[in-house]
Amino acid sequence: MRTTLDINDHLLAEAKSQAALRGISLKALVEDALRERLHARRAAPQTAELPTFSGAGLQPGVDLTDTASLLGIVDAVPGR
């Protein structure tokens, strides 16, 4: 499919240079870059690495929905 794009002059010059270095056409470079970018967005998990801590885990009687109670428990931990 034929289309027209407005591309920053510096970016276009860089793309042409990369295409020449790789021995491929500008079209092939743009298609590869676009394909890679679209695939990366689909493949990249939207997760964050959460810190882990040692300890005994969730204790009996702790109500995770009671913020005031949780703050009281945290404040009662020795060394805090």
How much helix, percentage-wise, in residues?
Answer: 40-55%
**Order of H and E elements:** HHH
Low-confidence stretches: none
Instruction: Count every beta strand, where a strand is a DSSP E run of 2 or more residues.
Output: 0
Beta-strand percentage range: under 5%
The main sheet comes to: none
Distance between the termini: 64 Å
* Anisotropy-based shape: rod-shaped
Structural class: mainly alpha
Using the CA coordinates, give the radius of gyration. 27 Å
Mean pLDDT across residues? 87
Treating each run of at least 4 consecutive H or I residues as one helix, how many helices? 3
Summarize the structure.
With 80 residues, this protein is mainly α. The protein contains three helices and no strands.
Q: What does this protein look like?
A:
The protein is mostly helical. It has a domain at about 10-45. It has 3 helices and no strands. α1 (about 10-20) packs across α2. The longest helix is centred in the middle third of the chain and has 18 residues, at about 25-45. The model has no long low-confidence stretch (mean pLDDT about 85).
